[in-house]
Amino acid sequence: MGYRISVLLVLLLTGTTAFAGPDINLELLKKNTRIFERIVSEIISQNFPNPFAVTGEAEGSYLEGYGVVVSFHLNINRSRIRTPFGEIPARTEEQLSKAEQLRVLKDAMVRGLADYGAAFKQLTPQNRLSISAHVEDRNELDSTKKTTVVVISTFKEDLDLLTTEKISFEQFEQRISVLEY
Predict the structure, then answer these.
(1) Is 113 in contact with 154 (CB distance < 8 Å)?
(2) Mean pLDDT of 155-180
(3) CB neighbours of 63 closer than 8 A, spacing ≥ 6?
């Protein structure tokens, strides 16, 4: 009985640090997150060349117990641009539908995760790496349908398996979570 009380006392005094995961170098994680933010921003600008498509740079955060989330806002279907001098047509080579643009976005972000996501060496296999996109359709008049949120998420373990070629890209795509609402 006295042994159980002493063990319980030790656990209570040590707090949650006894059960915490490995210490994470937050400076290194911040540096890796900034690099990944720039990669995501570059992927967006390559796939959506309209100068008014991206309203700001991608921004990432580390969520303890979860992993890293990178988010951005994207404007699509900018067929006409409002200026102080009136509306002018946007320079676009080809106008894709909203569904096609969302497919391009998802494919590009999945490929970006596959190619660059394993760079987060200090995340545990159970941590996730997620990309959250708020996609605003500028031509949609219904405010309830105007913004679509796309969240693409994968476990670090799956990224490591892909990097070490223990799973194929097709298997990785099946394991990745893509949520659209």
Answers:
(1) yes
(2) 96
(3) 69
